[in-house]
Structures are given as C-alpha cells and as structure tokens.
Amino acid sequence: MIQLWNNEPAEWRVELETQKGEPLSLRTGIQGRVLIVNLGETPKPETVRRAAAKAVKTVQSLGGQSVLLNAAPAAEALGAAGVSALAQGADLACYQQESWKHAPDKPFDAYLTGADGLDAAAILTETGAVTRAVCFARDLVNCPANLLTPERMAQRMTEAAERLGIETQVLDEEDTRALNMGAFHAVGDSAGHPPRLIVLRYRGGATDAAPIALVGKGVCCDTGGYCLKTAGGLKGMRGDMAGGAAVCGALLALAENRVPVNAVAVIPAVENRISPDSFLPGDVVTSMSGKTIQVNNTDAEGRLILADAVTYAIEKEGANRVVDIATLTGACVAALGFTTAGLVTNDEGLFLNVMNAAARAGEQYWRFPDFPEYKKMIESPVADLCNQSNDGCGAITAGLFIGAFAEGHPWVHLDIAGTAWVDRPRWEYQVPGATGAGVTTLYELCRGLAQAD
Predict the structure, then answer these.
(1) This prediction's pTM
(2) 3, 284, 322, 380: most buried by Cβ count inside 10 Å?
(3) Cβ–Cβ contacts within 10 Å for residue 374, how many?
(4) Which one from 229, 291, 316, 375 is the annotated catalytic residue?
C-alpha cells in the first residue's frame, strides 16, 4: 500500500501537471529520473486514478522498485478526492495475482507527498481499506475452482470478516433445505461439494435501523449443467463468484473504516456441475418465496440462487433495500463490453444513490429499461416464472427475474459479467485477471446512505 513519504530515497519521482494537452500523456524530466504525467486542464478523480496507475506501471517496466508521487496538482484540483484516487490507482497497479509458481514476489514501494493542507494520513487509511478489499475480491475471483469450493470460500470470507468484528453465519445444506430454498438447491445439489449460504452482518448503524442487503452471486464453478458450456466458455468460469467476492469486499471495507451503517451480505455459494441428480431443462422448482420456476436453461443458474438469496435477505435479515450483483449474462457483455456493467432497478431513489456512488468509485454502469413487455418474456405456461426469456433481451429479463423476488422493496441489479475479469486490461489500474468490480461502488453506496440517513 502507498505510504506517506518519510524522506526514504526513491528511484523515480512522478510529477502530475494540469495543463492543455492529451490527458495521461507521459514525458521524462530533464534532470534525474522524473516521470511527468499530464492530467489535462480539468481533471476528474478517475483521470488521476488512471494517471497514477500508468506512472507506476511505467516505472515498473523500466526496472524501478520505488517511486515518489507528488500529489500536489491532484490535491489542488480535487482536494481529498484527488489524493484518494491517486493512492488507489497506484496501489491497484501494484497488485500481484496470487500464484502457485515457485517464484518470489517483486517488491515495489510507493510513497506520496504534496498533500499539504489535507489530512493525508486519514485519506490513505480510508482509501487503503477499500483498496485492500478490492484486492481481496481479486484474490478470490482469481483462485482456481478446485481450491475455492463453496465451503472453502465460506471459510476465507468468514475468517476475513471476523478479524474485523463482522458477525458471520454459514448455513449448510440442511439449514437451507429447511428454509425451502428450492431454487438454490436445484443448482447446488448437483455438485460433489455441497452448497453454502454465507451471511455477513456489519452492524455499524443504529440498532433499530434495517440493513441494506448486498446479495452476491457465488457460483464457484459453472459448467452450465446439462446445457453445457463450450470449452472456451468453461475456461473463465472460476470467476462466476465475482458478485459474492464484491459484496464481501464491500463489507470488509465498511467495517475497517467503521462506517455508521447496517449492511448484510448474502452470498449463495454453489457449484453448477453435472450429475445423475442435476436439474434439467423443463424442471419446475419451488423457491423460498413460494413462487414456482420453470427451468428452461440450466446455464441460467445464477438468477435461481439469487432469487432465494434475495428472499432470505428480506424475510430473515429484515433488509429494506436490496442490491444484487452478479456475473450474470453474456448478453450484458454483448451489449456493453468490458468497461461498463448493466443495471436494472425498480426504484429511482436507490438508482440515483448507486449512480452517485459509482461516479465516486470511478466505475461505469448503464441502466437497462424495464418496460412491461420485458416482464412478459419470463412468463411460463406451467409456473409463476421462467428462468430464461422466451424472446431475447437476456440481460434485461435476467435482472427482472431477480427483481420479481424483491417483493416491492427498493432494488437494484448489477450485471458485472463484462467488467469482473479482463484478459487485456481496459484501465491502467487493472491487471490481467480479476478486477474487483463492484467493491468500491458498493462501499461508496453504503457510505453515502450512512451520510444521508
């Protein structure tokens, strides 16, 4: 993590400047090892975040092992937000993916100076907690599926949460079966590694205040079931639990920074495999809510487990607002690519809260429509709902399927199928693999709600 400069020598110095010209352009200083990055005339926090990351990666590519970043221009232009963005960009650029190779890590030290007049230590403390949470989420998503079964994921999440005083509960298959979570079990019962419902409760707000529920898809391994994926499609399915990683990371950051809000993370953790007892196209299952679901596609499993998790969050945790996040649909990737996540909602107020949080986080979301005709696309002739659209619009209808279980509570669905993983980084602070998508937005959402309430 980036540190305040304490007169330690650094091989490189990075100077930011705000002036005309192309933002993020680099040039080398006249004397010494100085890298100059242009932020443009009117920089935004995201520009600073990307500039810091680009500078760090450039220094690393030149063999440097330490850098001193002068935050003065960012602080003057944007105040604390500029310093925070600089620190996060530098730290995320330094992320090294967990590896099982017998090779040493490459140490790299980053220092910050030039934040005069601001409480830089406090800024780095808060930002560092969020960045560590993003990196924790990256680590989980990068982990191979054979090393991150539902039980192992529950163990890693609860250990991290308990260190920060978060209350944890892991419901096993007997517990969830007793709750009649039939949609959850339709998916999870097909695997040799049994399902787990992971519940993390952060109680930082008033004792009588209802929590906001953050519900994250936790499919540790997704073969597609009997609607089997292609070989190429299977390759990246270890990351199909990125939504679960995101909500866990957000709670870790809230707890470390002691944000005065009540939030509960609910993570349905399963494997979607093939076995003699696996669910099949044409099956009808009964969800925890009592709604029946016709299964048209066993590869549309994420919405099934999220349906029961949303019901659990409302009925058992008393949540009054719900945000679910998932690597849900290839249709979202087709529509928005790898830089922007999709969004579906039933509530304008919560939608604006999420979008304001995303702007502070530097993440991009695009709202899909929810016209009545889209809801007709998930109607079934034999059940209350169908888990696959009968007429396309897959990203929208998948979100609306989950929304049917929100029971009228304010709800937002985030589809991060395209943004949770990048083989080729789209932003300078990304590295190949998991991005930690959603962690910072969810943290900023809860932090903003705490200030508003």
Answers:
(1) 0.97
(2) 322
(3) 19
(4) 229
